[in-house]
Amino acid sequence: MSLRRKHGFTLIELLVVIAIIAILAAILFPVFARAREQARKTACISNMKQVDLAALMYCGDYDEVYADSRVAAGPPENCTQFRTVGYRGGDHITCWAIRLYMEDAQINLAGYPLRFMPYVKNVGIFRCPSDNLVGRWINGPQRGSYYQRHAHDVNAVARGSFMDIKNASVMQPARLGYFVEEFWHGGGSSPYAWDGNNTGARASNFAFYDGHVKTVQVNWREPTGAGNYDLNWFFQVTGWPFEQDPWDK
Hints:
- The chain is α+β, with helices and mostly antiparallel strands.
- It has one domain (12-244).
- The chain contains 4 helices and 4 strands.
- Strands 1-2-3-4 form a 4-stranded antiparallel beta sheet.
- Strand 3 (203-208) and strand 4 (213-217) form a beta hairpin.
- Helix 1 (11-61) crosses helix 3.
- Residues 221-229 and 234-247 have low confidence and may be disordered.
């Protein structure tokens, strides 16, 4: 009777298998990461679409007048009614345009989400899954991911101690951004428009005054040669008089 010797894997064979697995992982993991980020980007676009439609429904319910920082109210800081107050700089942003909650505990809604909640019923749409909620203007837990562009409020002030921005005032609604998401998709050390490192994705999701949402490529340099800039304003380094046919490139 002969005994058959059982052979196991040699060390070299195991190393070859491990090397093959490592190579496949190096190839596939970035693909999976990009696919996951693309799914998040799609979710963010869907959220922005709902926010944009809520803004348009609000406009329809209030005599074709868009919401602005005059209806910001409550604490923190100076977030009270703006109706009788002129331009207040960053208060328009911190109290209204990016604020989602009044406090870090995320109990009380604030800013434009408070006014749009009757139309969306889901506070989650004001956050992008790719947003890591770092502090930007206000503490990260207090802010949303989609900015109502500051230029909207500034234009209302510039036209005379807060005049209503009506639907008819927007000359090219399909080309003028209403809400903007600041470059959360791309893997940079910080959102692309925030600092001079020129990292991360070079495009941002925009929601337009006509209700459509799309990703817009943004050049790093403005026509003036300035570096990073705040997308709450505009691309062309000009004013924002709606009646003079403005738009975003």
